[in-house]
Structures are given as structure tokens and as C-alpha cells.
Amino acid sequence: MRRTVFNEDHEAFRATIRAFIEAEVVPVYDEWLAAGQVPREFYHRLGELGVFGIEVPEEFGGAGETSFKFQVVIGEELARAGVSFGGSSVHVGLCLPYVMAYATQEQKKRWLPGFVSGATMFAIAMTEPGTGSDLAGMKTTAKLAEDGGHYVLNGAKTFITGGVHADRVIVCARTAPPTAEDRRAGISLFVVDTKSEGYTVGRKLDKLGLKTSDTAELSFSDVRVPAEDLLGEEGKGFSYLGQNLPQERLAIAAGAYAQAAAAVRFAQAYVQDRTVFGKTVASFQNTKFELAACKAEVDAAEAVVDRALEAHDLRQLSAADAASAKLFCTEVAARVIDRCLQLHGGYGYMNEYPIARLYADNRVNRIYGGTSEVMKSIIAKSMGL
């Protein structure tokens, strides 16, 4: 079926991104995998290409687009090639919406030009050891100094994507204790300079997948954060976090769909080339049936993503809609990628094949951005259950 969610501008952009990935990422991707992260200078290259500024207003050096579809195009092309831009997906997908929504004009003038060029890479620090999805249980504190000129930040965060390369990190911290009526009260957001004294990047975490994404532990010991780096209003951080969750979950759903589509493409190419018992693997009825079933699931996931994308651009994507899209697409991708790996036989288990990397990378989709169980709870609540 013909997709109608993308227009000529999106497809022209797709052609540019595809050519860039094939020329500048694919040839060196094995080196990035071995290093466990993307070279920091590569982000300057993405800045030059305009990848970071698509949704940034022109006055700050961006293109001024309001549609999220360009980011989805990037995700689809990365999955198609079996590669990644590392932790920079958080820079745009998670951090930019908070800056655009809650930063003052003065803060935008300070941060956004560097954001667009890649000179100032952003990450966001929410999760803490022992809290997981329970953000209201965070222990990191930010206490306002007596003179009101700065906050003193203390605590620790973990699973921070982009945490090694980040120049600024949006840190969620308690500026007041929770109340008996509301555990979510008292949380604020700060855009912290990673060069600040007392700010420490701990271990770069060794993950099952997403090997080129620099995921780190962070700790803060009496870090002085200027009061002018408070993002939004004090105490409203938890509500701010909830505003961006639909887009975050849509992005994960779209990425999962793209991974599933790529898996089918990889498997189809493999079985048409691989010969056993004197004929190609593609010629066996089981192979045809397996790939046909996978294709049908991918088609369904595509329809879900496209509908959600249109709703998001119209500002009509609800929390329950996004949860439903994420739940469905991530579960589809898990099934499809597993079946496509099986069609590769033993070679599917080798990391030199992109299907093996997809298998590992895909697993986190049902965890981050809210687990599948959390998605089910949100959907059930919307049903009045």
C-alpha cells in the first residue's frame, strides 16, 4: 500500500540522509561498535548537515519545521542500514522539546545555537539507581542557596543515554520534599553544565545492545547550578516530564516498526542468496510463509505509526494513543526480528550480521520510555478500568 504520511520534502530529505549514512556511517560503523560510542566530532558533522536544527526556530539557526516526521525519516533510514547515530537521538528527540517548551528567551539564545551546530550536546537525567520507572521516588536534591543565586545539586543518576559526550544535561532533582497528598510534588528541572565542579561521569555502561550509544552513570557532589539554569518553574518538573512522553513513546514505536521492516529486508536478501540442500532457502514453503507473516505484521505496525504520526502533528496524540502505538509496535518488532533471525540460521547469531545487532538493540524498546506493563496500565486506565 502507498504511504501518504510523507510528502515530497520528506522524501527529498530521506534521499539526502540515506546517501549520508551510506557514505559516512556504514564504512566506519564497525569501528564505532568496537569503541562503544560514536566519535564526538561526528556530532559536529550532523550539525553541519542540519540534523539537529530541523525543529529549531530560524532565529536560533534552525530550519523552523514543526513536524516530527523528519525525525522519523532519520530513524527509518538508520534502521534500514543497520546503524545508529549513537546517543544523539536523545539530544533532539528528548531534550529539544523541553528546551523549546520551557526555556526562557534568554536561555534559548544561550543554548540553541550550540545545540544546532553540535557544539553543545544535550542529554537528560531522570532515572536513579533503585527507582526505575518510579520517577516520583527520586532522591537527587537541588537546594537553593541563601543568596538565591545558585542551587546545590547532590545525588546520582543511571542509564543516561548520551551521558559521556554531553555538554549540558537536563537533570531532574527535588527542590522540595514530596507531600503526603502528592509524591510528585517538589521536582524541578535544571540544565547543568557538565564541566561544573563536583559533576562526575561514572561508568560507561556495558549494554546488551545499542553498543554505539554512550550510556553512563552520573553523580553530583555539591554541584553549583546557577539559578538562571533552572528550566521552567520550580516544582513543576514532574508535570513537564509527562508532557513529552507521548512524543517519546511515538518515537520508540516508529523506531521499532523501522527495525522490524529492516529485519524483513535483511532476511529476504539472505534467504534468496543462501543455498541449502541444493536450492535457496527462499524456495522452501516455510521460508515463504514466515516472511509473509512477518510482512503482514510490519504492514500493520506501519499503519499504526502513520496514524499516530498524523495525530501528533495535529497535536491530537493522547497519552493512551501513544502507549498503544508503543506497545503494539514494540511487540510486533520483537516477534518479527526473532523470526527473521531464525531464517538466518547460525549466521543470525553472529554480530557481523545486522540481524544480530537488531535483535539485541530491539530488546530495550519494551523497557525504556515506560515498560510494556506501564503501557498496558495507561491503556487500561483510558478504558475506565
From TrEMBL:
Family to which the UniProt record says this protein belongs: Belongs to the acyl-CoA dehydrogenase family.
MF term (GO), any: acyl-CoA dehydrogenase activity
Domain Acyl-CoA dehydrogenase/oxidase C-terminal stretches: 235-383
Cross-referenced PANTHER family: ACYL-COA DEHYDROGENASE, ISOVALERYL-COA DEHYDROGENASE, MITOCHONDRIAL-RELATED
Keywords: FAD, Flavoprotein, Oxidoreductase
Residue ranges of domain Acyl-CoA dehydrogenase/oxidase N-terminal in the record: 7-118
Cofactor: FAD
Coiled coil: none
Domain of life of the native organism: Bacteria
Keyword Transcription regulation: no
Protein name (database record): Putative acyl-CoA dehydrogenase
InterPro entries assigned to the protein according to its UniProt record, in alphabetical order: Acyl-CoA_DH_CS, Acyl-CoA_Oxase/DH_mid-dom, Acyl-CoA_Oxase/DH_mid-dom_sf, AcylCo_DH-like_C, AcylCo_DH/oxidase_C, AcylCoA_DH/ox_N, AcylCoA_DH/ox_N_sf, AcylCoA_DH/oxidase_NM_dom_sf
